[in-house]
Specification:
The protein is α+β, with helices and mostly antiparallel strands and 415 residues long. It is 37% helix and 15% strand. It folds into three domains: 113 residues; 121 residues, no CATH class; 135 residues, Sandwich (Immunoglobulin-like), CATH 2.60.40.1120. Strand 2 and strand 3 form a beta hairpin. The protein binds heme C (2 copies). The site of one heme C (HEC) has 17 residues, from helix 4 and helix 7. The site of one heme C has 17 residues, from helix 4 and helix 7. This is Cytochrome c domain-containing protein. Keywords: Signal.
């Protein structure tokens, strides 16, 4: 009786000691990941374009050979396999949600166990290569995968909506909303008034969560329709006209964001062109007064050029710009400046954290007018030399604030 019992114990423990075959590990632990509707841990950084599922084939053998042939497993040091590294990428990221962390741990442990078991299997190690058409990998090219990364989306947000937030900040920051709430009951305002949060990241998260940016219907996003104050009324009045710098920046971001999250880009030539300019909003205002009747209620843009002390010429590229419709009734045009620089410049690095400022001095102001309302018909249209109406030199310390505008008289603007 005792013998029988110990025999039973022995067989039981033997059974539990026997390691699962790679195939068993695969069906128990990898297949559920493959079939799961849950997003993989990759989505923490890749909004589309790549997913862990892209690397899995229905059969254990093909999945392993596919990873092996793409250099994603290290046969001799399975724990150093690149596929494990990819899964582990977001481990230390503060942004990871609990669910993402939980998924990642599950994915990592499953793949680590399965890769290890498979690498120990001599027939798998030496099996002939898979046909290239049988490799399991993302369908999108690397450029598309890169473009759809959260850090790239953030970069584009910073250079568009965030850079031009000053056009909206006087009413839409938390402080502005609180101040207003003391004067007027808040219920007369929208629930998402305070959409400009302290940082660019928080702002983007807020805009998408509140659906002010509508990824399903990007051009119908309230973030675009409100400031146009056209079909949808805006408590702040007209803050954009179709085709102006603010609209262009916000619209191009919203369109691109929607295309990214919906996985719409298939090829790299469909991606938006990367501009070699980054923009930073300021609170320095330029006013042009006594505008002639021909400019009344037309869209007008200015570009500012700095003086180059070595070549003794105006610099070739503008250092600042801004635009708006001329207020015909008041013979007036005014707006705050947006600074322009190249992405790798010292200024660009500095202005990411410090307040962007235009140094005091003299500048050439070139003025462009959309006399035929081209932008309203095509928001992507750009004003060119044909739209140039004149220039003037302005000297200013560029003080900040609505009450401290730098003023130019339109009569000084000459061709
Ligand atoms: C914490 C953020 C993060 C997570 C999570 C993450 N990645 Fe990445 N991934 C990146 C970054 C950043 C790069 C580009 C830098 C690099 O090449 O190392 C990248 C690059 C890639 C590339 C190469 C494309 C290229 O740019 O050449 C692939 C493929 C990839 N990741 C797949 C995955 C898969 C699959 C997962 C999930 C298992 C994953 N990544 C999880 C951030 C992440
Ligand atoms: C002078 C103040 C002011 C400025 C500047 C302003 N807004 Fe508004 N905005 C308001 C007020 C007041 C409301 C609430 C009434 C309404 O919904 O129209 C509002 C509402 C909104 C809403 C809807 C919020 C919600 O809770 O649904 C959006 C989106 C919006 N504005 C976008 C913008 C954008 C984009 C800009 C800059 C280009 C801007 N606003 C500039 C005053 C302003």
């Amino acid at each position: 009786m005792r013998l029988l019992l110990s025999l039973a114990v022995l067989t039981l423990s033997l059974a539990s000691v026997r390691a699962d075959t790679p195939e068993e590990v695969f069906s128990k632990r990898i297949v559920p990941i493959f079939k799961s509707p849950n997003p993989s841990s990759c989505t923490q950084c890749h909004l589309s374009g790549v997913d862990l599922k892209d690397y899995i084939r229905p059969s254990h053998r093909e999945t392993f050979l596919s990873l092996r042939d793409q250099g994603l497993v290290d046969l001799d040091h399975p724990e150093k396999s690149k596929i494990l590294h990819l899964i582990d990428m977001g481990k230390d990221a503060k942004k990871a949600t609990d669910i993402q962390q939980k998924n990642r741990t599950a994915e990592y442990e499953a793949f680590a166990a399965w890769v290890k078991a498979s690498c120990a299997d001599a027939t798998l190690r030496t099996a002939p290569k898979l046909a290239a058409t049988n490799l399991a990998k993302p369908a999108k090219p690397n450029e598309v995968i890169r473009h759809a990364r959260t850090d790239r989306v953030m970069e584009s947000f910073e250079n568009t909506v965030w850079a031009l937030r000053f056009r909206c900040a006087s009413c839409h920051t938390t402080e502005a909303v609180e101040k207003r709430a003391k004067e007027k009951p808040l219920e007369s305002l929208g629930a998402n008034m305070a959409w400009i949060r302290p940082t660019a990241e928080e702002t983007l998260a807020y805009l998408t969560k509140s659906r002010l940016v509508d990824a399903k219907n990007p051009e119908r996003s309230l973030l675009l329709l409100k400031p146009l104050n056209d079909e949808i009324k805006h408590g702040g009045g007209v803050k954009f006209v179709v085709g102006d710098q603010g609209y262009k920046a916000y619209r191009s971001f919203v369109d691109d964001y929607a295309a990214v999250v919906n996985g719409m880009y298939a090829k790299s030539d469909e991606l938006p062109k990367k501009l070699n300019v980054v923009q930073f909003g300021t609170q320095s205002w330029l006013k042009i007064q006594n505008t002639p009747p021909a400019w009344a209620d037309k869209y007008m843009a200015v570009k500012l050029y700095a003086w180059d002390t070595t070549t003794k010429k105006w610099q070739a590229n503008p250092v600042a710009t801004t635009d708006r419709k001329v207020w015909g009734g008041g013979k007036l045009w005014q707006h705050n400046l947006t600074l322009l620089t190249t992405p790798d410049s010292a200024d660009a690095k500095k202005w990411k954290t410090a307040t962007p400022t235009l140094p005091g001095g003299k500048y050439l102001v070139k003025v462009y007018l959309d006399a035929t309302d081209r932008l309203a018909k095509d928001w992507k249209a750009e004003l060119s030399d044909d739209d140039f109406v004149g220039e003037a030199v302005v000297e200013s310390q560029w003080p900040t604030g609505y009450g401290k505008m730098t003023v130019l008289d339109a009569t000084a603007v000459k061709k």
